[in-house]
Amino acid sequence: MNDAPLNSAIINVCVLPPAEVSSQCVQLSQSLESDGTMFALNDISKFAHMTIFMARFADSKISHVLQATKLALSRVYPFFCEHTGYFMTAGRYLEVSYRKSAELTVLHELLVNTLSPYRLNPGNPFEEAYFTPYTEEQQKNAKETGYDLARHLYRPHITLTRYKESQLLEPFPGFAPTKLSFMLSQIGVYKADDNGAIYEQLAVFPL
Q: pLDDT digits over 25-70, tens only?
């Protein structure tokens, strides 16, 4: 893997949940905040979102990414996102899980195919922090698309927090029953940090 040049950014194209779902995710995230977590959602600098596609792009390509995203989404209509539970990844991310529906899969594949040609260093991506642990399968996806969780590894989710490497979460947090399903109605394009957390809005496209 090569070093990422300065004039580049991680771009996250993501589903933006409605305000009531976003607010509940922020509350859940903040309830987990401790010395053992790396971040918490706050709706100020860390926002609830469901990544559809994410990769590193040269700054000079960002305008092309926005134009291509807008054109691709002109063929997409609102659909239901079903909350199915919670999941702790091998990389210590705690997530709100959603059903990998046919509609989400089609949207994911559409954006992968549309945007991956614009990514930085096709075939030789910088190994981002959010790739950890970086499996052979993730490496293959990253080289082919720029996103380690692309295609059959795609997992619809909203990240609540990430635990530090020295922290073991036992037992798994018991959340009260919460309704986090929603109708998808807008897609955001954001700059993201090394953990994939979005922080700077570039565009929002209503469906």
A: 999 999 988 888 888 999 998 999 999 999 999 999 999 999 999 9
CATH number at residue 24: 3.90.1140.10
State the Cα–Cα distance between residues 160 and 39, nearest whole angstrom: 8
For residue 58, is it within any domain? yes
Q: Please report how many Cα atoms fall inside a 13 Å half-sphere around the Cα of residue 14, on the Cβ side.
A: 29
Tokens of 116: 């991956």
Q: Where in the sequence is the domain holding 41, given as residue range(s)?
A: 8-206
In one-letter notation, the amino acid at residue 57 is F
pTM, two decimal places: 0.89
Smallest Cα–Cα separation from 47: which of 201, 154, 203?
A: 201
What is the crossing angle of helices 102-115 and 62-73, to 10°?
140
Beta bridge partners of 97: 85, 157
Q: Name the 3-class secondary structure at 95.
A: strand
Helix (H) or strand (E) holding 31: helix 19-32
User: What percentage of residues in the chain have a pLDDT greater than 70?
Assistant: 90
Written as six digits, the tokens of 128 are 């981002």
